[in-house]
Design brief:
The chain is an alpha+beta fold. Helix content is about 25%, strand content about 30%. Strand 10 and strand 11 form a beta hairpin.
Length: about 250
């Protein structure tokens, strides 16, 4: 009788002891906040209206962009992550393969897992100083952090051809504030995601999550409200005011 191989691990934990803190995520049930170079840039939260209504917004163009703080290798173009034929699960990669990106995170312990995106995937693209609202009726939503749709059409075509060939599938990297969050911030893979959408293929996603998520603090909300509400159109500013009021009313 042949020996049965154990299933691949669902996740791997690793430490970032000397992270530069250029990319940091905080949040809990009240709301989630992405900070770049220490500045609040993206907020995702429930608007407390309708059936799990959600919203996302970002600060103005004067803030740092993800392009300015990230560095990735070509490894993500073809990481060799393949679902197990028996279980369908995907073994997460060696964290060292992502070390250039991981070094930009805030210091701490993180959990990594790899998976194919669910069939119902929403792409949320909040524009500067605007509020993007939607109903959270999908299994997963990714908040874009760079230009969308991507401007480099040649790169998208290259990934599209590779995906259609069915080999060496590219991977996206998304940062989630909590293990159970259904909304993540897309750190890398905008061109890859566009190519996946064009082929109708479920994207391969590498999920990063702090092992001990940091809840939002009062000073987080103060800085986020100052950054995100400064020049927002009045009707959208009212929406943000209601969201921040709700977040402050809930216990930390």
């Amino acid at each position: 009788m042949s020996k049965q191989l154990p299933p691949p691990p669902l996740s791997v934990a690793f430490d970032v002891p000397d992270g530069h803190g250029a990319i940091e995520v905080t949040g809990d049930e009240r709301g989630r906040l992405l900070l770049l170079a220490g500045d609040p840039v993206f907020l995702e939260a429930s608007n407390r209206r309708g059936s799990m209504g959600q919203l996302a917004t970002r600060a103005g163009l004067g803030g740092p962009s993800l392009c300015e703080v990230k560095y990735l290798t070509d490894w993500l173009s073809a990481p060799g992550l393949v679902p197990d034929l028996r279980t369908g699960r995907i073994e997460p990669p060696d964290p060292e393969c992502l070390r250039p990106l991981l070094s930009l995170l805030a210091p701490g312990r993180y959990v990594m897992k790899a998976e194919a995106a669910p069939d119902h995937l929403r792409v949320v693209h909040p524009r500067p100083l605007q509020v993007h609202s939607w109903y959270a009726d999908e299994d997963l939503a990714l908040v874009t952090t760079d230009a969308w749709p991507p401007r480099d059409h040649r790169a998208v075509r290259g990934y599209r051809d590779r995906i259609r060939a069915g080999s060496a599938l590219p991977a996206l990297v998304a940062l989630f504030p909590t293990p159970h969050s259904c909304v993540g911030y897309l750190l890398d893979g905008h061109h890859k995601l566009a190519a996946y959408e064009q082929t109708g293929t479920r994207p391969l996603i590498i999920r990063l999550t702090p092992q001990a998520p940091r809840p939002l603090q009062s000073d987080d909300l103060d800085r986020a409200q100052a950054a995100l509400s400064g020049s927002t159109p009045r009707h959208q500013d009212d929406t943000l005011d209601r969201v921040f009021s709700s977040m402050r009313a809930e216990p930390a």
